[in-house]
Structures are given as C-alpha cells and as structure tokens.
Design a protein that fits this description.
Layout: H1 6-25, H2 30-39, H3 44-54, H4 56-65, H5 67-70, H6 74-97, H7 100-128, H8 139-155, H9 160-171, H10 176-201, H11 206-226, H12 233-252
Helix pairs in contact: 1-2, 1-4, 1-11, 2-3, 3-11, 4-10, 4-11, 6-8, 6-10, 7-9, 7-12, 8-9, 9-10
Length: about 250
Amino acid sequence: MVGASPGQLVFLLVAGLVAGAVNAVAGGGSLLVFPALLAVGLNPLAANVTNSIAQWPGYVGIVVGNRRELREQRRRIVLTCIAAALGSVVGCILLLVLPGAVFDAVVPALVILASVMMALGPYLKRWIGSPDPDAPDRTAWLLPAVFVAGAYGGYFGGALGVILISVLSLLANDTLVRLNALKGLLSLVAATVTLVIFGLRAPVGWSDVAILAPTTLVGGYVGARVARRMRDDILRWCVVALGLAVGVYLLLT
C-alpha cells in the first residue's frame, strides 16, 4: 500500500489481527478485512482477491492451534479436502473469466448472504442439536456440499468458515470442537488454491497482504487456542452488523 498513512497501516494491522481471531472462534473474519481494504482505497475485485490471499496465514495458525482435534479424522479430512480444493478451483476460474461488472453486481448480495449465514449460525447449531460422534457421516451429501462451499470461497470467500461449519454440523457426525477444527483445515485448503491462482492471475495488493498476513496468522493461532471457552455471541453480532452495513453500502453505490 504505497503512500499509506500511519493511521491506515494501524487500521489494517488491527483488522488482520481481529479477523484471524474471529475466523478461529466464530468464522467470518474476512468480512472485517474486506471493508477495511475498501476503506483504504482498493476496488471491490482487488479487495476480494487481496483479502483471500491475506487470510491464508491465519488459517495456518488455526490448523496448528487445532492439530489435536484433527487427529483420527484422516478419511474425512482426505475426502472433504479434495472436494473443497476442486470447488475452490471452479470458484477462482469463475471470478477470473467472468466480467468484472458481474462481480461488482453480485458482491453486495454475497456480503449480505454471508452476514445472514453468520447470524443464523447459532440457530442452526441449536436446531441440529448435539451431533452423535458414533453415527456415520452423510458422505453422499457432505462432499457435494463442501464442493459448493469451496466454489463460493474461491469466488468470494466472505464468511466461508460460517458456511463450512454449518455444512459440517448438518452432514458430519462428530463433536463441534472437532468439526470446527476441520472447518479451519478446509478453509486453509480453499485459501491455498486462491493463493496460487490469484497470485498468478489476479490484481493482488501485495503490500496490503504483507501488512495483513502476519496479523491474521497471530490472530488465528491465538483464536484457536481460546475457541473452546470463549463467548463469541457479541463478537459474532458485531461482525454481522458490519457485514450487513457493507453489503447495503455496496448495493446503493
């Protein structure tokens, strides 16, 4: 971010740190970084791809912090990671080949959809109830659903973690702590695909990535360590309100 003021630098640093923690605890941290990038002057497409790449280190921190919960999920991890990777490839290709005007038209709806999904997350968990760790996964539904979520993540990515935890809670039978860890790993897979594809072909703000990436890493690791006992409802609703405000703003401009 050439010529950035000290205030803008601090703004992005704080946004990255909080976003990394939010991704680990509640999901939806990218909804904080996306408007932050818009605020410092990036256009929606550049803000989207820069946001996607900047989130990658944060997901690494989440996976490292949750490595204990990922043990003994090998088969589920392999199958869902393949589905997420393929879906993310499709989403990235759609973003690159469709006209920029399509993204500008669709992104307000995607931001609002992601915010609504984040708001509904606790109610979905309450409706689902406590998952039975001994029951088999609904694999025939789980893998296509993860593929679609990956495609969404490749195209936009806002609140991907919220969508993934909703899908996993509905279709994979395990404790929510372990499913939350898998959500972080799948987010990392999708982010890795976007890092490779967008890094080669998209208008990435690399100076912004350099500011955001270390803070999302720290935030993701710290957030993963406290996710088991942290109350996230207030944080969740703050992110939801911000996401809805950004969506409405983009819709009206």
